[in-house]
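ok, trying the design again with the full structure, not the truncated one.
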């Protein structure tokens, strides 16, 4: 049986919920399809010590402030899951769970959304499937010969799993720095980064980053020269555990090694470090395979967009993922604005 809806939103994480909030306000008929069994998107899978890099009020979706977490300036992932669960209920967002979208197809005046449990027809589709589900590992020679454990950020849970072990953490972004800080106390840690790690000044957290991203967008819109925005300030937010490990001298990085050998890693000059485990904190790519039937992907794997609208398919919007779908649109506080713009365009389209 085929079900119909004016709009189908694919993904019930924060981006999908922000879209749902605005679709509800606009009075559109919509469904949100989500592959997870429970609310919270990727936040359900974060490692134990992960905390937001902004205070609660600066991590809010449209309509409802995230409440502060008792005793924590920077809420943890569990608190975010509770907030998203409550948000979904409060706005009565129609999320259908354990539904995985397999493919989106053109079908006359509609888009046909094929899932693992039925088919939907919609006048417009919002894809909000995030990046967590497509971890990226670089092609480093010898990856197949290393005899220890290799895992990506997505599979890391807690330092106790590595106590006393020799661990190499690869990556100079926030995940790499936070996981290195997590492991710095009880493991023999080697932290490896492509270029020297650039910690932001201690007073700069997600609030300042969001303000800087917004100021940059305004400057670009006004035709001023691009100053590089937040990336000119640094890469790593010095959240309290990172600061503490840094201050104790536990967080010094080595440059990237050139290959793996069966017992560890080796640098270009022949020096080696033995390892029981390598944790690849090397980022993510957008989860877009369900859009493959539309044949929209450009040379670098992204889909070209104007705002959030796919250039090659005006009935499709992309939300979240990264700055290419709107400034800070992959963050809790930043996704509200592009969600609003996407749903307004869709309201015009289906009118
Ligand atoms: P997700 O949370 O990944 O939700 C996407 C949903 O779509 C999931 O439920 C998934 O199961 C579902 N899905 C995927 N494919 C399909 C399919 N084919 N069919 C149906 N459903 C599908 N942001 C902040 O604002 N503050 C922070 O402090 C912060 N810290 C971060 C720390 C880390 C380590 C990372 C990785 C990100 C962080 N972010 C932070 C960024 C961002 O807020 C999160 O990545 C967030 O989870 C993105 O939300 P989303 O809704 O775009 O994607």
């Amino acid at each position: 049986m085929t079900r119909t809806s004016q709009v189908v939103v694919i993904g019930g994480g924060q981006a999908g919920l922000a879209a749902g909030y605005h679709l509800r306000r606009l009075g559109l008929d919509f469904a949100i399809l989500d592959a997870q069994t429970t609310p919270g998107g990727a936040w359900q899978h974060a490692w134990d010590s992960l905390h937001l890099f902004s205070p609660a009020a600066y991590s809010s979706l449209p309509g409802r402030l995230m409440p502060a977490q008792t005793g924590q300036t920077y809420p943890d992932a569990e608190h975010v899951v509770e907030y998203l669960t409550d948000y979904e209920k409060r706005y009565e967002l129609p999320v259908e769970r354990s539904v995985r979208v397999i493919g989106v197809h053109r079908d006359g005046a509609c888009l046909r959304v094929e899932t693992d449990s039925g088919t939907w027809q919609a006048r417009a589709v919002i894809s909000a499937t995030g990046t967590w589900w497509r971890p990226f590992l670089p092609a480093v020679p010898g990856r197949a010969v290393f005899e220890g454990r290799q895992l990506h950020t997505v599979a890391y849970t807690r330092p106790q799993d590595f106590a006393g072990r020799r661990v190499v953490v690869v990556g100079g972004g926030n995940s790499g720095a936070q996981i290195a800080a997590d492991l710095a106390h009880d493991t023999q840690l080697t932290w490896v980064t492509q270029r020297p790690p650039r910690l932001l000044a201690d007073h700069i957290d997600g609030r300042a980053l969001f303000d800087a991203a917004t100021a940059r967008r305004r400057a670009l819109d006004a035709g001023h020269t691009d100053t590089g925005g937040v990336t000119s300030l640094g890469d790593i937010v010095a959240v309290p555990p990172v600061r503490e490990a840094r201050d104790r001298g536990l967080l010094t990085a080595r440059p990237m090694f050139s290959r793996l050998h069966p017992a560890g890693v080796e640098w270009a000059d022949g020096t080696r470090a033995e390892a029981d485990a390598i944790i690849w904190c090397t980022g993510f790519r957008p989860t877009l395979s369900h859009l493959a039937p539309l044949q929209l992907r450009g040379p670098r794997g992204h889909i070209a967009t104007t705002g959030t609208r796919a250039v090659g398919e005006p009935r499709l919007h992309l939300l979240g993922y990264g700055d290419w779908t709107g400034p800070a649109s992959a963050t809790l506080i930043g996704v509200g604005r592009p969600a609003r713009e996407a749903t307004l365009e869709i309201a015009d389209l289906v009118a």
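Keeping the full-length input from now on. Residues 10-16, 33-36, 41-43, 52-54, 59, 100-101, 128-130, 132-133, 175, 206, 287, 290, 320, 330-332 surround flavin-adenine dinucleotide (CB under 6 Å).
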